[in-house]
Amino acid sequence: MGAFIQIPAANSGETMDAYLAEPAQKAKIGVVVIQEILGVNPGIRAMTDAWAAQGYAAIAPDLFWRLHRRVELNADIPEEFQEALGLMQRFDGDLGVKDIAASIQALRDRGCEKVGVVGYCLGGRLAFLTAARTNSDATVAYYGVGLDGLLGESGKIGKPLMLHIAKQDKFVPAEAQAKVHASLDGKANVTIYDYDADHAFARHVGSSRVPALADQADKRTRDFFVANLR
């Protein structure tokens, strides 16, 4: 359904690749899909296509473009997962958030009046920062890593934010999850759901996916965007 296009990157005068999927009729609502450490791989592209099938203009920016363009990795292949971890360690998250802001603007430039953001893993971390630092109209973070170290930015979150937390997350210990809950529970514009699953339970395909919980989380995300973007 979709295809890669070029959009302006943040603060560089350069362009970056982004996978764009659009419905048959021009969309007034958009969704930015933020990649995992695996790049804009077939799973992320399928998720982006799924948003277009629901009537949204959807875009997945290639956030690793400064390191290596068009990264596509598979977490179930050990060598590729190690490559993904290496890319994450070299990745500049602050620039990544600015590239996400540029992606939001690219959708607004295409006629979208409201734009939501959804991210997974590393993308979940970036989604949290996006909620704090950009003009996203609604934001969803799936099992974001390191959120306990970003809570100082929560006061800047003015639009609706949803967090999906994996209680058995091997990359996010229980103490870190508790800090997120202690800081954000009761905050008027933040909704948090916990799932008895490990990291990446909602990945589109692969060994980590837990279909029933993935479907539950995805339905909550769809309903959240309908409530806050439509």
Topology summary:
Layout: E1 3-8, E2 15-21, E3 29-34, H1 42-53, E4 57-61, H2 78-90, H3 93-109, E5 114-120, H4 122-133, E6 138-142, E7 161-166, H5 174-184, E8 190-195, H6 211-229
Parallel strand pairs: 3-4, 3-5, 5-6, 6-7, 7-8
Antiparallel strand pairs: 1-2, 2-4
Describe this structure as you would to a colleague.
This protein has 6 helices and 8 strands; from the N terminus they run E-E-E-H-E-H-H-E-H-E-E-H-E-H. It is globular, with a radius of gyration of 16 Å. The chain has helices at residues 42-53, 78-90, 93-109, 122-133, 174-184, 211-229, and strands at residues 3-8, 15-21, 29-34, 57-61, 114-120, 138-142, 161-166, 190-195. Helix content is 37%, strand content 21%. By secondary structure, it is α/β, with parallel strands linked by helices. The longest helix is centred in the C-terminal third of the chain and has 19 residues, at 211-229. An 8-stranded mixed beta sheet has the order 1-2-4-3-5-6-7-8, sandwiched between helices. The chain has a single domain (3-229), classed as Alpha/Beta hydrolase fold, catalytic domain (Rossmann fold, 3-Layer(aba) Sandwich), CATH 3.40.50.1820.
